[in-house]
Write a structure and sequence with these properties.
Blueprint (H helix, E strand, L loop, with lengths): L1 H24 L2 H4 L4 H20 L5 E2 L6 E2 L15 H4 L2 H27 L4 H12 L2 H9 L2 H6 L3 H13 L3 H17 L1 H17 L5 H29 L7 H4 L10 H9 L21 H12 L3 H18 L7 H4 L3 H6 L7 H17 L4 H19 L11 H9 L5 E4 L6 H6 L3 E2 L2 E2 L5 H11 L9 E2 L2 H6 L6 H6 L2 E6 L8 E7 L2 E6 L10 E4 L3 E5 L6 E8 L4 E5 L3 E4 L1 E2 L4 E6 L5 E6 L2 H38 L1
Parallel strand pairs: 3-4, 3-7
Antiparallel strand pairs: 1-2, 5-6, 7-9, 8-9, 10-11, 11-17, 12-16, 13-14, 13-17, 15-16
Organism: Candidatus Woesebacteria bacterium RIFCSPLOWO2_01_FULL_44_14
InterPro entries: Uncharacterised_YfhO
Protein name: Membrane protein 6-pyruvoyl-tetrahydropterin synthase-related domain-containing protein
């Protein structure tokens, strides 16, 4: 068994190593591009690791950006994805490199078994499907963009395909559990991929020979229940939080990305990206939908060998996917843009991974049905790898950031304060490393109450969805003049600007390169009383000198924060007119504990723990039943 697994794994491992050769030789082309990995994921993973080691808790609140924001319901936090435990053992950079490599390798391995066991391909045909999936330029575009969740999800989609095919043919509870785990892992890695995969499952069912549809449906329903139980711990907080975030703006002012210049641009990027007018290396990540010529020809041959019914099904599915991915160039765009599902997807090309799967499986099917020489299959894999290498070689865009001198100055100030850099000149990676708390930020979601507050804080105005606060278009093309009083209320002590600020409360301290460092003379402390303990999930205030009344805390209000007088009596945390927190304190209160403990998290945690316990009990029972037979087998051998 192990020898067989080794034989299967070795070619997939080798091509994955080949795919990663440019990254192994020059890790900065993956780790230091100033992309989502460096600006969003790296800081969060570092912060979570630091919080676990320092406070011995899983941090549910993230204080380093946007004046503090919930981390628990952020769909890309990765906190509840168990393979991320690797980051507790390794340096963060090494963790991202090894995790990404292993997930792409595992995706290829899973694709082999999906083709071999799910669709009954021959070993050679299954291997071709696996190698084409592992070396897809699409997954390399995820690496280049730092789309960590999409890279991790690459491992799980083929496993979903395998389990669905198995359940459709011969429903067994073991496959049901594996389907639930795979879908739960997809949810934890990338929510949109999870939703697209869930919607696409009927197509897979129709492509599979079914033995007992009612029984299969029962197992699918059971997998959905188990999967819900596994993700309830953060799914329920996400559902409770989503309407309080800027994601709702996508339905009020729809916007989609990428914007295609023409259908010809789309086709060029899909089949012959080297003919792109700006060059292969200049293709935007979301437009990098490369299939390759040789893999496409192989897939076309495989398609011709299908039954007519399956041809029609795949044509309809591929046509719909293409119409969605065409975005503004789609003939159905006016219909799609009015649909909420399309609006909230925001990046329609995210559906393209389904086409990659079609291409890999159809190419394998071609090898299955006709005699195709090794040279052709070699060329297909080589084309994918060479295109991927070329894309990874695209130049790294440099940005102007503050110098180390600024960090040295800020680290000397032992007060608890926030910093605002007008053009986001402090990377979030550096903010967490230097324990700085920023007014600005780059995040998938921002609370609506903070959005409205940020207009006064930054001196800009926008009312559409943006990953960045303030948006790139605002800080690049406007000479922002922030409000010193508002920033002072927000505990902002220092402001950094590439241009002079007019407010007299901003006192220029020194110019560092292209940036002027200002002291905000309107700065106010985080709270007017001593803070005796400060962690992501809990804050303790000393109130023995307070006669009673309201205490205002310069922390962003969010549902889920509770206050406890003397650590026992629960009182509500209220929202001030400027969206900060306020607590009413009774006389003779020695201290107040503020805890971030959303009810949705408590409920979800209970559901997930119960699900894990039930699955563990089932596994133990099954193991004990098999133990006597295993003992007899060993005795005879």
């Amino acid at each position: 068994m192990l020898r067989k697994l080794y034989t299967i794994s070795l070619p997939i491992f080798v091509v994955t190593v080949l795919l990663f050769l440019p990254i192994f030789a020059k890790p900065e082309i993956f780790l230091s591009r100033g992309n989502d990995l460096e600006e969003f994921f790296w800081p969060i993973y570092y912060f979570v690791k630091h919080s676990i080691f320092k406070y011995h808790v899983l941090p549910l609140w993230y204080p380093h950006i946007l004046s503090g924001t919930p981390l628990l319901p952020d769909p890309q936090s990765g906190m509840f994805y168990l393979p991320n435990l690797i980051f507790l053992l390794l340096p963060i950079d090494a963790g991202f490199l090894i995790s990404s490599f292993l997930h792409i390798f595992a995706g290829g391995l899973a694709m082999y078994f999906a083709a071999r066991e799910g669709f009954k391909f021959s070993p050679r045909a299954s291997m071709i499907a696996a190698l084409l999936y592992s070396t897809s330029p699409r997954v390399v575009s995820y690496l280049e963009a730092g789309h960590v969740g999409l890279v991790l999800s690459w491992a799980w989609v083929p496993l979903v395909i395998l389990t669905i095919a198995k359940i459709a043919r011969s429903p067994k509870f073991g496959w049901t559990i594996l389907l639930a785990i795979s879908m739960a892992a997809l949810f934890q890695t990338h929510t949109i991929t999870f939703l697209i995969t869930a919607v696409a499952t009927p197509v897979l069912l129709l492509l599979t020979k079914k033995q007992s549809l009612p029984k299969s449906f029962l197992h699918f329903s059971l997998a959905a229940i188990i999967g819900f139980g596994l993700v309830a711990i953060n799914f329920l907080p996400q559902m409770a939080w989503k309407d309080l975030t800027t994601r709702t703006l996508l339905t009020k002012k729809p916007q989609v990305f990428p914007v295609w210049e023409s259908k010809e641009e789309f086709l060029t990027n899909v089949f012959i990206p080297v003919l792109n007018k700006d060059g292969l290396g200049q293709i935007n990540t979301e437009k990098f939908l490369v299939l390759g010529l040789v893999p496409s020809v192989l897939a076309g041959i495989g398609f011709l060998k299908l039954s007519n019914a399956k041809k029609i099904l795949i044509l309809c599915a591929a046509g719909l996917i293409t119409a969605i991915a065409l975005s503004n160039a789609s003939p159905f765009y006016d219909i799609f843009i009015g649909q909420e599902w399309y609006q909230t997807m925001r990046v329609p090309t995210r559906v393209w991974f389904l086409v990659i799967i079609f291409i890999a499986l159809l190419a394998g099917y071609a090898v299955e049905k006709i005699k195709i020489g090794k040279l052709i299959t070699f060329l297909a894999i080589a084309e994918s790898i060479i295109i991927s290498w070329s894309y990874l070689a695209k130049p790294i865009q440099k940005r102007d950031f503050v110098s180390q001198e600024v960090y040295n100055f800020l680290n000397q100030d032992q007060d608890q304060y926030r910093v605002f850099c007008i053009d986001r000149c402090i990377p979030q990676k550096e903010a967490v490393k230097h324990n700085l708390e920023l007014i600005e930020g780059h995040s998938t979601l921002t609370q609506l109450n903070y959005l409205s507050r940020s207009w006064a804080l930054t001196g800009g105005y926008w009312d559409d969805y943006s990953l960045s606060t303030p948006p790139i278009g605002v800080y690049k093309f406007q000479r922002l003049q922030p409000d010193a009083i508002a920033l002072g209320e927000q505990n902002t002590k220092y402001v950094i600007s590439p241009h002079e600020l007019a407010d007299s409360n901003f006192e220029p301290l020194k110019k560092y390169g292209n940036y002027i460092l200002y002291l905000n003379k309107a700065w106010q402390p985080r709270v007017g009383i001593p803070i005796t303990y400060y962690s992501p999930n809990k804050i303790i205030l000393a109130t023995s000198e307070v006669a009673g009344g309201s205490i205002n805390l310069s922390e962003v209000y969010s549902p889920g924060w509770n206050a406890y007088l003397n650590g026992k009596e629960k009182v509500p945390v209220q929202e001030t007119p400027v969206h900060l927190r306020s607590v009413d304190v009774k006389p003779n209160t020695r201290f107040v504990e503020l805890k971030y403990e959303p009810e949705s998290y408590k409920l979800g945690k209970g559901v997930t723990f119960l699900t894990v316990i039930v699955l563990a009990a089932y596994a133990i029972i099954k193991w004990r039943k098999k133990l006597p037979a295993l003992t007899r087998y060993k005795a005879h051998s």
